[in-house]
């Protein structure tokens, strides 16, 4: 570790963005390089930071702060810039700094350079959090020293000093974390990839290029796990020089894990097939979650976890919050929190799980997604009512009306400004005979909520306060 960090000793270092990852980077660098001058740039004013953060920043005599609207003004004075996820590298000031020789790096890149253990990287547009959590659970249940880090957990650098060569690091990797990466994990899990973050990337192709770093730098000693039915995942997997391990929902000739007669099956190195668990015994709701479980079965096999032990671990896995989470069942109505659904495709997947009448709460922050297919599915499924949030709610409503045409009956559509109002308006739409209230926004949470967790928590709180008889 010291050899790698020594390269930073004489550099002028700037940490760009003091969110979770930026704060983690600052703490780590200060621990490892106590005598170095550091700089921090963030668009917030000093008073907007938490009191404890303010105190730490004030007490650091070797720290320079660039805060507020002009936070990017001085970044060209620095040779190494640790950029936080979510700050577009296309910003003119960042491009100018890079053009003038600055090295653009990240919390993730530094972790990859310094980590002595094996990294299992997981990416995808949707499902990667569940996939990473299931992999971690299988390994941890087997007694292995496994940590879950990245987009799903704490920033990776917070764990680095606890890691040794025997440690397995399950790292959920977003496109933001991958875009500046110049290394790939030893095991790369590539899940389904569609369009997202088009408010950040100039095109779908640029987004997919950012994702491809997960395999681009793999060697013949590495492994990539993917479903070849997902075309973009297969394309990204093709960049890997490592061993290709495939999974599928049917028994393909090259599939290592697959579904057969209602059971998850693993094909071991000698070709023998082992039944792991029946799909109806999985604690995860929905067929789409089979895709999220299959990589964990393969990785369990790679680390010599017995088939029956993998099945046992899957059976007692606790689903992650806000992912089609059953909040309450009351008076024949089931209430589901699917706040992590930030894409129209994710909402479609959620709707596929219900045959009874559904009242859908959806909409949110604008990321220029296409709602045409979701609108069609809403009309095909038993969606009897919607409560929508602007601005994407308005576009979804228009897409539903256009898809319906003059002959198809429209579900009841209302709009709300708060989650409490949305739940209140949704209640009368649920049939007296029962049904489902599903909060699956298909949109990001920014603007109206702090994040998807806050959105989910507000939904759960509103549901639990319901007075519907």
Query: What's the arrangement of strands in the largest beta sheet?
Result: 7-8-6-9-10-11-12-13-14
Residue ranges: pLDDT <50 for 5 or more in a row? none
Q: What's the domain count?
A: 3
Q: What is the architecture of the largest domain at the second tier of CATH? A: 3-Layer(aba) Sandwich
Judging from the principal axes of the Cα atoms, what is the shape? globular
Query: Which CATH class of the largest domain applies here?
Result: Alpha Beta
State mean pLDDT (0 to 100 scale).
Answer: 94
Beta-strand percent range: 15-25%
How much helicity do the residues have? 25-40%
- The number of distinct β-strands equals 20
Rg computed from alpha carbons, rounded to a whole number of angstroms: 23 Å
Number of helices: 17
Distance between the termini: 61 Å
Helices and strands: which structural class?
alpha/beta
The biggest beta sheet reads: 9 strands, mixed
Query: What is the CATH T-level topology of the largest domain?
Result: UDP-N-acetylmuramoyl-L-alanine:D-glutamate ligase
């Amino acid at each position: 570790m010291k050899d790698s960090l020594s390269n930073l000793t004489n550099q002028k270092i700037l940490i760009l963005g003091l969110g979770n990852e930026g704060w983690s980077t600052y703490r780590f660098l200060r621990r490892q390089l106590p005598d170095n001058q550091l700089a921090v740039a963030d668009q917030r004013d000093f008073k907007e930071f938490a009191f404890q953060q303010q105190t730490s920043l004030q007490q650091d005599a070797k720290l320079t702060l660039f805060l507020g609207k002009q936070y990017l003004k001085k970044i060209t004075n620095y040779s190494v810039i640790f950029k936080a996820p979510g700050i577009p590298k296309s910003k003119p000031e960042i491009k100018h700094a890079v053009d003038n020789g600055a090295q653009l790096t990240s919390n993730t890149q530094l972790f990859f350079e310094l980590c002595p253990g094996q990294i299992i990287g997981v990416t995808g547009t949707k499902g990667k959090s569940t996939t990473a959590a299931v992999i971690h659970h299988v390994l941890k249940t087997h007694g292995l020293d496994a940590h879950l880090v990245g987009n799903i957990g704490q920033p990776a650098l917070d764990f680095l000093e606890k890691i040794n060569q025997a440690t397995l690091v399950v790292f959920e990797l977003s496109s933001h974390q991958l875009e500046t990466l110049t290394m790939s994990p030893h095991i790369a899990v590539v899940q389904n990839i569609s369009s997202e973050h088009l408010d950040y990337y100039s095109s779908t192709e640029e987004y997919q290029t950012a994702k491809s770093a997960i395999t681009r730098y793999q060697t013949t000693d590495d492994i990539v796990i993917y479903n070849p039915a997902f075309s973009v995942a297969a394309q990204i997997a093709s960049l890997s020089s490592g061993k290709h391990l495939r999974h599928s929902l049917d028994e393909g000739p090259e599939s290592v894990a697959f579904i057969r007669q209602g059971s998850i099956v693993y094909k071991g190195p000698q070709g023998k097939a082992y039944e792991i668990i029946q799909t109806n015994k999985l604690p995860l709701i929905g067929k789409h979650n089979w895709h999220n479980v299959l990589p964990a079965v393969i990785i369990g096999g790679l680390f010599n976890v017995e088939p029956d032990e993998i099945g046992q671990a899957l059976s007692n896995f606790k689903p992650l919050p806000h992912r089609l989470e059953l909040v309450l069942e009351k008076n024949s109505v089931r209430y589901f929190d699917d706040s992590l659904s930030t894409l129209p495709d994710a909402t479609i997947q959620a709707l596929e799980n219900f045959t009874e009448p559904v009242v859908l709460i959806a909409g949110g922050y604008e990321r220029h997604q296409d709602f045409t297919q979701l609108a069609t599915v809403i009309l095909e499924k038993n969606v009897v009512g919607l409560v929508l949030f602007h601005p994407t709610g308005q576009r979804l409503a228009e897409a539903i009306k256009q898809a319906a045409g003059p002959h198809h009956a429209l579900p009841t559509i209302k709009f709300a400004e708060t989650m409490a109002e949305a739940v209140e308006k949704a209640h009368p739409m649920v049939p007296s005979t029962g049904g489902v209230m599903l909060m699956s926004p298909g949109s990001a949470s920014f603007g109206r909520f702090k994040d998807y967790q806050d959105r989910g928590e507000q939904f759960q709180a509103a549901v639990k306060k319901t007075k519907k008889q």
